[in-house]
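It is worth pausing here to work through a concrete case rather than discussing structure prediction in the abstract. The textbook approach is simple: state the sequence, then state the predicted structure, then interpret. We follow exactly that order.
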Amino acid sequence: MMRSLYSGVAGLKIHQTRMDVIGNNIANVNTVGFKASNVMFQDVLYQTSQHATGSNPANGAGGVNAKQIGLGAATATITKQLEGTGSAETTNNPYDLMLNGDSFFVVSRAGMNYFTKVGAFQTDGAGYLVTGTGEMVMGWQTDPDDPSKIRKDTVSALQIESATNKYSEPQATSAAYASGNIDKTDPIFEDGGAKVMNVTIYDEKGYSYNVKMNLAQNNTADKNTYTVSVASITDSNNVPITAGYTLSGDQLVYDADTGAFVSVGGGKEITLAINDDAFKDVSIDFSATTMYASSANSTIQLNRGNLQGLNGGRKAGTMEEVSINTDGRIYGVYDNGEQKLLGQIAVAKFANPAGLEALGNNLYRTTQNSGDFDGIGQEVTEGGGTMSQGVIEMSDVDLSNEFTDMIVTQRGFQANSRIITVSDTMLEELINLKR
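Step two, the predicted structure:
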């Protein structure tokens, strides 16, 4: 039987395989995060009818090349290029994420870790971050000793919208500061008048109170010294509190020549102490104020929190939205102004991403040729990658390339079929030699 028949059959098989891959690529042209596959061919065994010989100067014979007849072709590899990043599709869904780089999200089902490029996530009834098919998204938790930091340990499921994360605890106010300017010629200070300053504070349970303070000019010739006093402290219904309160000092002094702040109560701040365990002592910093001429208009006012914006207190809050940074850190944003760190999404990188085994549902698992996952992962920014919120990665299938490959594959299939038909014709002629 003619060897060309089997070479033609082998050619038909590999071109059919290539067509199967092209068909799968085109079918997934709109599958988010899909990575197109590519088929490579290789030749197979050769039948040697004459081996090569070397030259022999003694008898004047030259070297002869081997005579070999190929026995067809076979599929060498079917690979996916997993390192690149496809185009971005904007969704504005806070849990839709796209990886820019060659890393993978780590997801888990039944205790087994898998890997995916598709960041189309959502939360389940228990508040866990999951894929559309129920795999849990893995990452790092906050440090129990310091919730403002991440503990990079073995990855675990991220329960972003847990009952505790849904709400923000209240915090009592422990700091305030004064800002603005005092104009000593302001007519408000005439005849013992005072500049009124208000600031809102919170107690331990998150109830708000209004502290009204008066700033009066001392009856001195230089008008550089002022008296600070508490006029009233009222609750949200404008009812005065029954607890007593005291100030640690009351004299506010400025430099007569420069107008710069000198001291208040002998230092840079005074303390408001309310005789009730529900309140914290409030340190009021006056060091950011000045005493300059400003058209006889004083702008001094009180602000909640310290000069760094901390310890201002807050009411109890409810989560309004989730913000995910480019490094994968997840923050809850609450209606009381707090922003709380909830966890961080970890990623995995592999020495040979093409060695991962595709399982369907946009999932991959490790093989002996991909490299192992250490169970901890790494931050997406290691190696220059980033994470984008509100977008997902589209399929990287290039239709123009796929259709071109389809034409080439079709012609290759046709050519191999011709090998079979021509070989059959030749066999027919051979048989017809004897009728």
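Step three, interpretation. Helices lie at 3-27, 399-431. The two ends are 19 Å apart (CA to CA).
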